[in-house]
Design brief:
Its EC number is 5.4.4.2. The mean pLDDT is 96. It is built from eight helices and 20 strands. Strand 11 and strand 12 form a beta hairpin. It is globular. The protein has a domain of 206 residues: Anthranilate synthase. 25% of the residues lie in helices and 36% in strands. The chain starts with a strand and ends with a helix. It has a 20-stranded antiparallel beta sheet that branches. The structure holds the ligand C=C(O[C@H]1C=CC=C(C(=O)O)[C@@H]1O)C(=O)O.
Length: 378
Amino acid sequence: MNYRRINLKLKHPLAFWSAFPDPSERVFWYDSQKQTLIIASQRLTTVQEKGIKNYPYVFYSQSFFEQVKGELWQDMGNEIIAFKHYYIQTKTDSYVLSCDPLPDIKDQETVLQHHSYEEEAPEYTEWVKLYKKLQENITSGKTVKIVASREVKFTSLTPFNVEAILERLVQNNPGAFIFAYHKSGKTFLGASPEILVQKTGNQVLSYALAGTMPRALENGAQLLLKDSKNLQEHQIVVQKIKEKLLEKVSQVKIEQTDIMTLKNVYHLQTVLKAKAGEHSLIDWTKHLHPTPALGGHPSRAALDFLRANEKHERGLYAAPLGLIDSQGNGTIIVAIRSALLKDKACYAYAGCGIVAASDCQAEFDETKIKLKTILEAL
Ligand SMILES: C=C(O[C@H]1C=CC=C(C(=O)O)[C@@H]1O)C(=O)O
């Protein structure tokens, strides 16, 4: 496909997003580690994996579970999509790649509108019920760890303003991957710190990210590095990713476990690296998802439990998504610290890994802290 390159430096890059109102499909992707922003707009076509090389970037997503239940998440994800226009901004360059005439782009500042909203959270007693069943599952030996999640609905007096929320997600979350996928009047967005798999040439990298302490806790980072419950939760993820990598390649490099510091929480983080071999980024994604940082261990039993007992549909929450370039390189994150916006409704998601030594109230509180990523952007 022939894309023209047009030099364009926007002072307010979100103006590119705003230049394509509904029904334009759009993707926003800001890698704050590389300080690279890509905004893709207007679907050109759905792509088969072998066709990826024909487009500057494609957007890849797959739902958390293979089957998606209910109305809310219908038609979101499980596709590879090429777009007509890409606005690309790196530390040194800024341009558009386009295969269609561009609309007028007004380089206007985003109005940082705040929203007044009401919360419709399920009762704490609902969490307690789920937690009890989960502990029974662990005690019976079916599972060792399950990552349970909550969906909390926030209703605003005015429609949620995606640009303002994205702007604040970028400002508040250095180190994270800020993403948005807009389709049919719905926007799924968030600021995820977790790379499922990143492919650069013949290298792949994956984050084991599990184990959490609030930033508000004094010495939280030091406590986390020594906390046996969190270390167990974390090690399950490291071992599983290692095992999965070794199913395809002969060597894996496991870096030292460290602390990832985010705005509201600390996490335990271990980076694993391997050779990509002949496997594509999508092969690796399908092979690794869901890690026990999002599903549980053993995986099948944990997923069966979640399907049977979580009341909400996960859709793209905790699911793999990202951009892949024409060389097959890119970063697939798991879409946590995320929410689905639809007009005046915001469905926000947060989960936490639960093992035998967990505490019901502490895990609930952890999901509330994780929800702050979204709430502080509203
Ligand atoms: C499932 C989520 O977080 C995962 C990532 C980091 C730490 C986690 C934890 O400590 O439980 C979770 O595994 C979420 O934010 O919704």
